[in-house]
Amino acid sequence: MQGKVTWVDGLMFVGEAGSGNSVVMEGGEKDNGIRPMEMILLGVGGCASYDVVSILKKARQDVISCHCELEGVRPDAVPAPFERIEMEFVVRGRGIKEAQVARAVELSAEKYCSASIMLRNAGVEIVHRFRIEEI
């Protein structure tokens, strides 16, 4: 995996992934981009959500939508690494089985999500929850 981060102006940077996709990051000076720590939080949510949806689809669950609500807790100090991340998956669909969602979330947390496993191994407490919305 490769990437490049280029300074643009002030505290604004453009990150380009090896895939060719890019994102604007900004340190909070002008609020013209995502802050780097927000990127980490969103990356964890994206990684885990990918796992959960993939596992539920393989289990033939009728998932219509899924999103992950995230809250990261950081100390009011420098540096300010995440101490705790709470993740709540909201799965909407028809006839979704609670046991299947619980299993998908557990597999993501314990086996598949490289981002959350990496952070957990670094001492970040990660809490996983889910709720199902029947449509």
Structure explained in plain terms:
- The chain has a three-stranded antiparallel β-sheet, with no helix packed on it. It has a three-stranded mixed β-sheet with strand order 4-5-6.
- The protein contains three helices and six strands.
- A hairpin with a 2-residue loop joins strand 1 (3-9) and strand 2 (12-17).
- The chain folds into two domains: 1-34, N-terminal domain of TfIIb, CATH 2.20.25.10; 36-134, GMP Synthetase, Chain A, domain 3 (2-Layer Sandwich).
- The chain starts with a strand and ends with a strand.
- Helix content is 34%, strand content 38%.
- With 135 residues, the chain is of the alpha+beta class.
- The protein has helices at residues 36-58, 98-112, 114-121, and strands at 3-9, 12-17, 22-26, 62-73, 84-94, 125-134.
- InterPro entries: KH_dom-like_a/b (IPR015946), OsmC/Ohr_fam (IPR003718), OsmC/Ohrsf (IPR036102).
- This is OsmC-like protein.
Topology diagram in text:
Layout: E1 3-9, E2 12-17, E3 22-26, H1 36-58, E4 62-73, E5 84-94, H2 98-112, H3 114-121, E6 125-134
Parallel strand pairs: 5-6
Antiparallel strand pairs: 1-2, 2-3, 4-5
- Radius of gyration of CA atoms, rounded to a whole number: 17 Å
Distance between the termini: 39 Å
Morphology call: globular
CATH topology-level name of the largest domain: GMP Synthetase, Chain A, domain 3
What's the average pLDDT?
A: 96
Strand order of the largest sheet: 1-2-3
